[in-house]
Amino acid sequence: MKRIERERYLDDLISLGKTDLIKVITGMRRCGKSYLLFEIFTSYLESIGTAQDHIIKVDLEDYKNKKLRNPDNLYRYVESRIADNDKYYILLDEIQMIDDFEGVLNGFLKKRNVDIYVTGSNAKFLSKDVITEFRGRGFEIKMYPLSFREYMSAYSGTIQAGFNEYMLYGGLPQILSYETEEQKVRYLKALFDETYIKDIKERYKIRRNDDLEDLINIIASDIGALTNPNKLANKFMSEKKSDISYETVKDYIDYLCDSFLIEKSTRYDIKGKRYVNTPYKYYFMDLGLRNARLNFRQSERNHIMENVIYNELRYRGFNVDVGVVPIVKTNGDGKQQRSNLEVEFVCNLGSRRYYIQSAYRIETDEKAQQERASLLKVDDSFKKIIVIGEETPVLRDEHGITTISIYDFLLKENSLEL
């Protein structure tokens, strides 16, 4: 398989090398963290003249390093490798496999000539741990599966065929090394059940396995749909005759989010400039895992494309909310009725903001008006974009609303400025 450079993450590591913080690469298992650290970043260090004996690499998941999972042994090993006052790079993969890892890392921080980089995976090393354990001395780099542009850099077929496979099998790098559909399906199903779900059950000591499994299926079936823990608990009660509580459902969802399987998007009142607490939307960080969970039975392309757009925006560093535009209509009786229009994505990064709608197909004027309706009600000057799932030239109407194809949106770095 062709090497995929993951340039966005490499640039982050290079720029953060000027700080004395612990660089913590988090993300779901098999999204490429180890490869980024041990192959891509190591190659960079060697290219700038770093001697190999000044790059201390430890893969803690490797059985041959089992003794180094003891914090005292690891500390002594790394200390024994530091032989002079020149700079050393400490690269530790799967740091969560060490008890008291925070004590070991904080001990390394006291050494003036070391730069520390670690990876940690889903259910055993959460982003919230970075905040609590290192107290301002750690910087998290959240890594996602392959973007479509990264995926296509190693895919040999057409863009259209690549996009179809990307929506079906997702962006975990290993998927590109399998040639048959059967191999890809088997890999994704085994990964979901034997790695991700097993991690969650073991870490949180889940006793109601069936309820957790059912909840995952419901969220996977309803990507992009508004929901909340209370609504889900009621659904369990009415359809599955389960007495699962709101608190348990909320905890299970938090576990899935903290484990990098799903992400939550919160509703934002665009006119009122405030967040609306519930309901939320949930998206899968990798669609291949989502589809495998449902045995590839639900392949509704409009919802899947919406998830792809969400993931791309998060990969680019945007905070992404669900936009709400309150409106007032007069009904046939002359009475006023309040309702909400939805802007699927309100994207913010620093001073930049974009309003984005996802529409797999716009086949009629009525559908076009429907997609534009909420955007027309947003009365600020930030850019408004409709992404459609077919090839089209970039179009801009008299209201300043831009329409672009999903291919331009995903493959062009400056697509939001077209």
Biggest sheet descriptor: 8 strands, mixed
Label the overall shape.
Answer: globular
Distance between the termini: 32 Å
Structural class of the secondary structure composition? alpha/beta
Give the count of helical stretches.
15
Structure description:
With 418 residues, the chain is α/β, with parallel strands linked by helices. The chain is 41% helix and 23% strand. It has 15 helices and 13 strands. It has helices at 7-16, 33-47, 71-81, 101-109, 127-134, 148-152, 159-169, 181-204, 209-221, 229-239, 246-258, 287-293, 301-315, 365-376, 406-411, and strands at 22-27, 55-59, 88-93, 114-121, 138-142, 262-269, 274-284, 319-330, 336-349, 352-359, 383-388, 395-396, 401-405. The strands form two sheets. Strands 7-6-8-9-10-11-13-12 form an eight-stranded mixed β-sheet. The protein has a five-stranded parallel β-sheet with strand order 2-3-4-1-5, sandwiched between helices. A hairpin with a 4-residue loop joins β12 and β13. α7 packs across α12 and α10 (229-239) packs across α11 (246-258). The chain is globular.
Short descriptors:
418 residues; 15 helices
Fold topology:
Layout: H1 7-16, E1 22-27, H2 33-47, E2 55-59, H3 71-81, E3 88-93, H4 101-109, E4 114-121, H5 127-134, E5 138-142, H6 148-152, H7 159-169, H8 181-204, H9 209-221, H10 229-239, H11 246-258, E6 262-269, E7 274-284, H12 287-293, H13 301-315, E8 319-330, E9 336-349, E10 352-359, H14 365-376, E11 383-388, E12 395-396, E13 401-405, H15 406-411
Parallel strand pairs: 1-4, 1-5, 2-3, 3-4, 6-8, 10-11, 11-13
Antiparallel strand pairs: 6-7, 8-9, 9-10, 12-13
Helix pairs in contact: 3-4, 7-12, 8-12, 10-11
